[in-house]
């Protein structure tokens, strides 16, 4: 329903949907492409959205059936909007901005390093060891 709601104002591509959801949750939730794209495919299969190409990117927009479905679920959409607003207004967000930024940079560094030399088993093992060490060290913080 949230995706349908985001598509009511304008066609969007998957990455734009991810960023908009992140923005609407105050950064507390950032859906992965593995969540967004299967959801979009399901909406396509149901006939609720259609795709137009914008260069190499697929832009998703509501169909008439999607607009009807959106209009039929105003109560659900209101509940979603209230929950998203609560996440943004929280005095204690799920992931404070400094931690969220560090996690984002770490994820991208790990991904880029592995992708730059995917056959390098020594690098992959070193990365796994570093991550395991970080996990243990961070886990000890909650015990203190």
UniProtKB/TrEMBL annotation:
A Pfam cross-reference name: PadR
> Record's superkingdom?
Bacteria
Return the InterPro entries for the record: Tscrpt_reg_PadR_N, WH-like_DNA-bd_sf, WH_DNA-bd_sf
Outline the extent of the Transcription regulator PadR N-terminal domain: 3-70
Q: Which PANTHER family match?
A: TRANSCRIPTION REGULATOR, PADR-LIKE FAMILY (PTHR43252:SF2), TRANSCRIPTIONAL REGULATOR YQJI (PTHR43252)
Protein name, per record: Transcription regulator PadR N-terminal domain-containing protein
């Amino acid at each position: 329903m949230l995706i349908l709601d985001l598509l009511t104002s304008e066609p969007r591509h998957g990455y734009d949907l991810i960023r908009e959801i992140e923005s609407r949750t105050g950064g507390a939730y950032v859906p992965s492409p593995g969540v967004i794209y299967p959801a979009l495919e399901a909406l396509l299969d149901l006939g609720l959205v259609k795709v137009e190409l914008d260069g190499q990117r697929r832009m998703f927009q509501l169909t008439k059936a999607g607009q009807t479905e959106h209009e039929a679920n105003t109560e659900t959409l209101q509940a979603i909007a209230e929950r998203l607003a609560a996440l943004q207004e929280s005095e204690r967000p799920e992931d404070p901005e400094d931690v969220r930024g560090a996690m984002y940079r770490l994820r991208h560094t790990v991904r880029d390093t592995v992708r730059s030399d995917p056959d390098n088993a020594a690098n992959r093992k070193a990365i796994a060891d570093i991550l395991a060490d970080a996990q243990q060290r961070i886990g000890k913080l909650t015990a203190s």
